[in-house]
Specification:
Blueprint: H1 9-23, H2 25-62, H3 65-114, H4 123-167, H5 170-215, H6 217-225, H7 229-281, H8 287-328, E1 346-353, E2 363-370, E3 375-380, H9 386-393, E4 401-406, E5 409-410, H10 416-420, E6 423-426, H11 437-442, H12 452-461, H13 490-503, E7 508-512, H14 520-533, E8 538-543, E9 554-559, E10 562-567, H15 569-575, H16 578-586
Parallel strand pairs: 3-8, 3-9, 6-7, 7-8
Antiparallel strand pairs: 1-2, 1-4, 4-5, 9-10
The structure holds adenosine-5'-diphosphate.
Adenosine-5'-diphosphate binds at residues 121, 355, 358, 362, 380, 382-388.
Length: 592
C-alpha cells in the first residue's frame, strides 16, 4: 500500500547525484571538467590582477616597462580564455539541461506504464504525479546546480580562502560573516516554500477541477442546465483563495527574514572594505594585494550570492525533486516473464481485496470457478463489488489475500501483457476517442491489418447503424465535432465500445455495464445477441438489470463483497433470495 512519505534532503542529494550520473554519465563527467576549468581560470584571474597592479605600482621605481606590457598582454589572454570558458560552461549547462529533460520525461512515462493499476485508483497517486511533474525541472536544476555548485564555486571559494589566509587571516572571518547569513536565508526560503507546496497541492487540484467544470466542453451542458455555474464559481474561488493566502503568508515570512539577513551581510562587506583600506594605509599590504583582494572580495561576494542561491535552490528544489524520485520509486508490477498459451478455466481461491486507504474490504473471501466457454452474469446492487471482481479476474488488480488462477497458473506469476492480450473488456467509462469510426474500433487491435468487413460485421452485431445519415457507410467518418466530424449519441457510443471489445480476438470477454444509456429492452437485445456472438469464448456480463441476463448459463449474485447466490435464472428464482426479489421488482422494465 502507498504511503505519503517525503524523501529527506540528504537522500534527495544522494539520489540527485546517482540519478544524474546513471542517466547521462558522459555529460556528468564533462560538466565536472568544465566547472573545474572555470574555477581554475577564475582563481588565476585574481592573481593576474594582483600581479598587474603590483607591476604597475612598482614600475616607477624599477622602470621595467617591458614587464608591464607583458603583464597587460597576459591579463588580456587570461581574460579572453576566461570568457571562452564562461561561454562553454553556459552552453554546456543548457544542452545538458535539454538532454536530461527528455530523459526524465521518458523515465516518467515508462514508470507510469509499469505502475500497478491499483495505484491509479487513489487520489494520492494523482497528487504524486502532479508533484512529480512539478519536480522534473527542479530535479534537473538540482543535478546541474549540484555539480556546478560543488565543483566550480567550492573550488573557487576554497582557493580564495587559502589566498586570503596567506595575506591576512582576518579576511577569512569576514568572508564567513558575509556567507553564513545568506545560507540561512536561502534555507529558510526553501523550507517555507516546501511547506506551502505540501499545503496547497490539494487546494490547487480542487480549484483546477472546479475551473474545468466551469469552462470545459464535457461539463458545459450540465453546468448550464443545472444552473451550477455559481456553485462551481464559488468553490473555485474559495480554493483559489486558500492557495493565495498560503502563498502570501509564505512570502511575508520569507521577506522579513531575508531583510534582517541581508543587513548582516552588508555589514560584513562594509567592514571588510574598511579593514582593507586600513591595512593599505598602514603599509601592511601592497597596492597589488589591495586590488587583488578587493577584486577577489567582489568576485567572492558575487559567487557567494550565486553559490548560496544555487545551494538554496537545491535545498528548496530538493523537496520538489524528491517528489519525482518518490514517484519513480513507487512499487511496480512484479516483472514476471511467465507466459501462458490460453486462459482455460478461471479460479478464485479465497480472494479478498481492499482499496488503498479504505478500511473495509471491497471483496471478502470469494471462491469461484469459471469453466471455459461459460456465459456468466454478475449481478448485484451498486457497490456490491462487481467491478472490483472483474478487475481481479482480468488481472488489473492483485488480490490483497488469496489467488486468481488461469488454468493451474497463479496470474500474479504471469507476464501482464500476456494476460491482457487474452481478454477483452468494455467498462462503464469506456473511451470516446476523437478518431474516425474505423480507428475507434481498431484500437483494440491496432497492430493488425484493416479489415473493413470485420469492422462492419461487429457494428451490425451490436446494432450500430453505420449507414445512417451523417456516417453514410463511411468508416472514415471522424467522430468529433471539434475535428469537423459528427457527434454520436450516448447509445451509439456504447454500441461502438462493445463492437470494439468484440473486434479484439480474445478468449475472455467482459462487459461491465457499458449499456446504461440504452433502455432495458434494447440492452436485453444487445446482451442476447452478445451471448450468440461470444459462443466459444468465456464471457462475463455485469449489470444491475436482471431481465437482460436471464438466459446466461450462470448468474452470480454479489452482495456487500460476497457471493450470496450462484445458479441459473430458474434455480435462483426457486431459491427466492435477493435475485428473485430484484427480478420481480424489475419485471415491469421489460414490458412495452
Ligand atoms: P459495483 O461494481 O458493484 O458497483 P465496485 O466494485 O465498484 O461495486 O465497488 C465495491 C466497493 O469498493 C464499494 O464499497 C466502493 O465504494 C469501493 N470502491 C470502488 N472503487 C474504489 C476506489 N477507487 N477507491 C476506494 N474504494 C472503492
Amino acid at each position: 500500500m502507498m504511503k505519503h512519505k517525503t524523501l529527506p534532503f540528504y537522500k534527495v542529494l544522494f539520489r540527485t547525484i546517482k540519478y544524474g550520473y546513471s542517466r547521462l554519465p558522459l555529460y556528468f563527467v564533462l560538466f565536472i571538467l568544465v566547472c573545474f576549468a572555470l574555477a581554475s581560470v577564475n582563481f588565476i584571474s585574481i592573481n593576474v590582477v594582483q600581479d598587474l597592479f603590483d607591476t604597475i605600482a612598482n614600475v616607477f621605481t624599477t622602470n621595467e616597462w617591458g614587464k608591464v606590457a607583458s603583464s597587460i598582454v597576459f591579463a588580456g589572454i587570461v581574460f579572453v580564455i576566461y570568457n571562452i570558458i564562461v561561454g562553454l560552461h553556459d552552453l554546456f549547462k543548457w544542452s545538458y539541461f535539454m538532454v536530461f529533460m527528455s530523459k526524465i520525461l521518458k523515465d516518467m512515462n515508462a514508470k507510469a506504464g509499469r505502475l500497478s493499476l491499483i495505484n491509479f485508483e487513489s487520489v494520492e497517486l494523482y497528487d504524486k504525479i502532479n508533484l512529480a511533474k512539478g519536480g522534473v525541472r527542479y530535479a534537473l536544476n538540482s543535478t546541474i546546480d549540484l555539480i556546478n555548485g560543488t565543483i566550480y564555486y567550492s573550488l573557487f571559494f576554497i582557493s580564495i580562502l587559502i589566498h586570503f589566509m596567506s595575506i591576512q587571516p582576518i579576511f577569512v572571518l569576514i568572508c564567513v560573516l558575509c556567507f553564513v547569513p545568506q545560507v540561512i536565508s536561502q534555507m529558510v526560503k526553501g523550507s517555507k516554500l516546501y511547506q506551502m507546496q505540501e499545503k496547497v497541492v490539494t487546494a490547487q487540484r480542487e480549484s483546477e477541477y472546479f475551473r474545468s467544470c466551469l469552462t470545459e466542453r464535457d461539463f458545459y451542458k450540465e453546468t448550464k442546465t443545472l444552473d451550477a455555474r455559481d456553485y462551481f464559481k464559488k468553490n473555485y474561488l474559495s480554493k483559489l483563495q486558500i492557495f493565495n493566502r498560503e502563498k502570501w503568508l509564505t512570502e511575508l515570512k520569507i521577506g522579513s527574514i531575508d531583510s534582517v539577513l541581508t543587513l548582516i551581510t552588508l555589514a560584513g562587506y562594509i567592514g571588510s572594505f574598511v579593514l582593507l583600506a586600513y591595512y593599505l594605509m598602514n603599509g601592511q599590504i601592497s597596492l597589488g594585494e589591495f586590488s587583488g583582494i578587493f577584486y577577489a572580495l567582489n568576485r567572492l561576494m558575487d559567487c557567494t550570492k550565486e553559490m548560496v542561491s544555487i545551494y538554496g535552490s537545491i535545498y528548496q528544489n530538493a523537496s520538489l525533486a524528491g517528489k519525482l524520485y518518490d514517484f519513480l520509486e513507487l512499487p511496480e508490477d512484479a516483472g514476471v516473464d511467465k507466459q501462458i498459451k490460453a486462459i482455460n478455466s478461471i479460479t478464485l481461491e479465497n480472494v479478498s481485496f481492499g482499496y488503498p486507504y479504505k478500511e473495509k474490504n471491497a471483496l471478502e473471501n470469494i471462491n469461484l470457478h469459471i469453466k471455459p466457454g461459460e456465459h456468466i452474469a454478475l449481478v448485484g446492487l451498486n457497490g456490491s463489488g462487481k467491478t472490483t471482481l472483474i478487475k481481479l479476474i482480468l488481472g488489473l488488480f492483485t488480490p490483497t489475500k488469496g489467488r486468481v488462477l488461469y488454468g493451474e497458473e497463479d496470474i500474479n506469476k504471469i507476464n501482464k501483457p500476456n494476460i491482457f492480450n487474452k481478454s477483452s473488456a468494455v467498462f462503464q467509462n469506456f473511451g470516446k476517442y476523437k478518431f474516425t469510426l474505423k480507428e475507434n474500433i481498431m484500437l483494440s487491435e491496432i497492430e493488425k491489418e484493416e479489415e473493413d468487413d470485420r469492422i462492419k460485421d461487429k457494428l451490425e452485431l451490436v446494432g450500430f447503424d453505420y449507414k445512417r445519415k451523417g456516417i453514410d457507410n463511411n468508416l472514415d467518418t471522424m467522430l468529433s465535432k471539434e475535428f469537423n466530424g459528427i457527434d454520436l449519441s450516448g447509445g451509439e457510443w456504447q454500441r461502438l465500445a462493445i463492437a470494439r471489445g468484440l473486434y479484439k480476438t480474445s478468449e475472455l470477454i467482459v462487459l461491465d455495464e457499458p449499456t446504461a444509456a440504452i433502455d432495458p429492452i434494447e440492452e436485453a437485445n444487445v446482451y442476447r445477441q452478445f451471448k450468440n456472438i461470444s459462443t466459444g469464448k468465456t464471457s462475463i456480463i455485469v449489470t444491475h438489470r436482471l431481465g437482460s441476463v436471464k438466459d446466461a448459463t450462470r448468474i452470480i449474485v454479489l452482495d456487500q463483497g460476497k457471493i450470496i447466490e450462484d445458479g441459473t435464472h430458474e434455480e435462483l428464482l426457486e431459491q427466492n433470495g435477493l435475485y428473485a426479489t430484484m427480478f420481480h421488482a424489475q419485471a415491469g422494465w421489460y414490458e412495452r
